[in-house]
TrEMBL record, chain A:
Name under which the protein is recorded: Porin
Pfam families tied to this protein: Porin_4 (PF13609)
InterPro entries: Gram_neg_porin_domain (IPR033900), Porin_dom_sf (IPR023614)
Signal peptide: 1-21
Domain of life: Bacteria
Location of the Porin domain: 11-365
Keyword vocabulary terms for this entry: Signal
Phylogenetic placement of the source organism: Bacteria, Pseudomonadati, Pseudomonadota, Gammaproteobacteria, Alteromonadales
UniProtKB/TrEMBL annotation, chain B:
Keyword Signal: yes
Name of the protein in question: Phosphate ABC transporter substrate-binding protein
Superkingdom of origin organism: Bacteria
Keyword tags: Signal
Gene3D superfamilies (alphabetical): Periplasmic binding protein-like II
First and last residue of the signal peptide: 1-21
Keyword Signal on entry: yes
Amino acid sequence: MKKHLISIALVSALTSASLHAEIHLSGFGSVVGGMTTSSDETLSGYDDNMDFKQGSLFAIQASSDLGEGLGVTVQLEAKGKDDWEPDFKWAYVSYDATDSLRLLAGRQIIPFYMYSDYLDVSYAYAWIAPPEGVYDVPFDTFDGLGLVYTTSFGSVDASFHGVYGRNTDELEINLLGVDYQVSPELNGVMGLSASFTYDWLTLRAGYFTADVVMPITDLDNLADGWEQAGFNDIAANTKIDEDKGTFVEVGFQINYESIIVVGEYTQLEVDNSPLAVEDSYYIMAGYQFDQVLVHLTYGADEGKTDNYTSDVPYGVDPTLDYLKQATELTLANDIQDNDYIIAGVRYDFHDSAALKFEYTAFTDDHYNNSDAGLFRVAIVTVF
Amino acid sequence: MKLIQKSLLLTLCLTSSLVFADVAVIVNTANDSQISDDDIQRMFLGKNKSFSNGESVVAINLDSGNEQRGEFEEKVLGKSSSQVKAYWSKLIFSGKAKPLEEVASDSEVISLISSTPNAIGYIDASKVDSSVKVVKTF
């Protein structure tokens, strides 16, 4: 069988070199070194030991134009923080129905944020990576269908990006203050992003929903306890099982001569779950001096939980007391209230590479022992 | 006439080797479309995909690092080479657009454009010959 295939391949290679579409290869990468400013501080996976792995990444993209509007794009990315295990970020077949309408089928990025489409292409923006407080949905890809429609209304360029699909990738996420390895199901991922550009101003908005199933042993055990005690509503609230997740984003970008100003606000909510409703935003301003861009960002991240056990009084029954206490602790662990300032410089020292320096001062207003300062330096490239 | 042109060119070269040559934006001689400065800009940023005559645009770039390309990007697109590269990497790595076709020299641009009815490119204005049509010189 194999031999047969090989000979077929050989024959077709010999007879019709022209039938094989040209493959266009491109790629990008970041090598990031970083450390916190003091031994008792950790931030974004960094501590006070100089680290070159956590923020580093490389990706290679192959695309081919098959003719008649059909194309294939595959992007393989490896990140230091995943021990360099490569992962397909994009793997899709595209069809350009018209000059303004493109259909995509396969693995794609969910366009949650302003920088989603090129999230890891650090060369394309000012920071080493976009602010984590806002860019923190624990997954960013899905398998399904996408539609990109670009048009213009007078001198306003508009782009609409719709998605429909599912994500069942295993995730390592920090939920409720604890790191979990989970196998979630994000069913019926659906949404739309729209962006409008007029000369120096871009406005953007996005709205996405999904049915979220996230089996987490600690929560499921707690939910079983509530169920046995006869509190079915509280049990359902404690489990993350077919709960509707909603993500909303609005943002703007100003590129006026040498001035750049960018702002984004996001809200993430999983109904009927112990997860916090998270509101996040940042605003960044920068100025381009020839080859050097200087920028400053302020951002804040707030997570609020709703104590759905408040109707159950303490002191009635020891089991109930235990359940209530454990649930309240879980809910309290997901509360967050922090803000940060990022000061950075980007230096375009080469046609295809830039050097970046960044300092992040992180202030935690909820847990007062986790303030941190992080210094990072990066060389970023596209090729 | 030719002699005058040549001697002019020579004088120019001698007096101002520091000043870059003008950039001529060129199309196929059969292309009768109206093309504004804004159109040129949008065609080379992948925003405008068709000419006013309905033909789809094939924009031809010079290789990265080419002096003429830097000149074109600064004068016509109003951006530095790094900014243009950052702009295109947004489109390429999100699969929203294919990169422009790149060639190594002015003469390759001329031969591609003279044989492709819907192509547009730019070259050193002094290299223009009768096989292509100049849209505008910057």
